[in-house]
Amino acid sequence: MLSTAEAATDANPVVNIAAYKFVELSDLQPKRDRLKQTCKQLGLRGTILLSPEGINLFLAGSRSGIDQFLAVIRTLEGLTELEVKESYSRELPFNRMLVKIKREIIAFGVEGIAPAERTSAKLSAKQLKAWLDAGQPVRLLDTRNDYEVDLGTFRGAERLNIQHFREFPEASRQLPDQAKREPLVMFCTGGIRCEKAGPMLEKLGFEQVYQLDGGILKYFEECGGAHYDGGCFVFDSRVVLGPDLKPTGAIQCYGCQSVLTHEDIQSPQFSFGKSCPHCFRTESQAQEDQRLARETALRRLARSQPGCQPYENRRRMFVAAQWAGLTALDFLCAYHPPTPREQWLAWLAEESITSGNQRLDPESIVREGQQLDQVQADYTEPAVSSDIGLVYEDEWLVVINKPAPLPVHASGRFHRNTLEYMLAQVYRPEKLRLAHRLDAATTGLVVLARKYASARVLQPQFASGGIAKRYLLRVHGVPAADQFSCMAAIAEEPSERGGRQISPSGAPARTDFCVLKRFGDGSSLLSAEPLSGRTHQIRLHARHLDLPIVGDALYGRPGPSLDLVCVEPEVMCLHAWEIAFEHPITGQALKFVAPEPSWCDRES
Per the CB 3.0–4.6 Å rule, which of 127, 150, 288, 338 could disulfide with 498? Predict the structure, then answer.
């Protein structure tokens, strides 16, 4: 930083100006356009904030450029008397030029505070020094943020421990009642924050409120460092100015913007342009931060119930070889058995299902490869559970703890209220690939691959049953044996309701069961290990053993099945509890365990 006298003889001095004025401004967009163009033409850099309450600016450039800018801005109504503070540096402290329109020129968030109409009494820098020299009783209040106060403040000043000026109103209410009767001098960097803080304090009943005119920087200019320890943070590349108004040499961390000491810079945790001791995270800590951030984003999206907002739902259906030659109606019933035949007929009648943009007759014959399109306007989906847990993620894998009800993939009534859709929004532009599936009413662990290379290894392992999985289930009935198995074969073709059936001619299947707890209400808690991967295998085998799963609407007992008070409606007591497999890329043995649901321990 050069003094005013030195600047006059320096070959290329950079002039820095700071100014603010609370005044009613209108036509902000034309003013913004004009000032932006002027700054660009003059080669200036910095920030100008315009709002209905006034202007706040920090600019740097050549002497000629600054003078021409001031000549322009002082032609604007309300800004003819704009006063500026000047300082000098050898280099431009700003990287770019911004002109923004804001609701407030200094964020405060309190209605009824209008500095253009009324502010607190101003106390000059020299008068404050005289008071402090004489030991006159006065309470000094630093209105700045914590990180600014840490770099320097007046001796004995009171700090409010705030992270943002918006916190000032609440923090000031915590000041002792005694302070309301004492002379109180508040201060900030250049004075703008005190313009709003003063009227706020007076509203709270403070009787003698003064604001340091021109702030700390004006005090440095007129009084040096008397009664002040440290430097003053400024919002440009100079970072910290000492009482001589020269940069102290401090730098800011690129990552967290903390001001760094010499010791910080010498730390092994300091990496230029990346991190410092204040924000350094180990690889595992950074991964955990990322996991928590994604989990928060997933839950926020799920709470918004994206499928419950009306939208135009477009559904494409292709005729596979086994369905060629069926009528259109029969094909649709075979394509999605859970949808009633009457519903398909109604959609065909209202022409929401077409082929080649042509109306589709229920009795027309479909051919292999034919595409049918269904369009539903103002479509809404049933609500789903939003309590999605992100158990693990790395470069290759994602492991989810899925709640219920929540479909894993699009089917039937669901498209946007599905786990796949929500993950696609949060991980975009990545495309996650399911390694396996869970029913909408089943809770617990779901594994997805983040890249094709990991999917290529994982998906065959799940398909072949090479993954160790263990489920928790609560069933109606009390088994006599503690351990038992079911090896009933399961039909591969879906039944009329879209489920499966036990069939001697079906595919081989085996599930090993273990009793974990027997309850007095006639139900039991079991663990199940499926040694094969048939559709609905655990549910079918449990029913086959006359131990239907509580809440299973498809394979449960006839009549009301949700007869345990600890089970919520639409929740089936089947939970994908544990899963173990080798990492598809590193080969590391991985095992994940999902928290046990509440229905595991509670009596009805």
Answer: 338
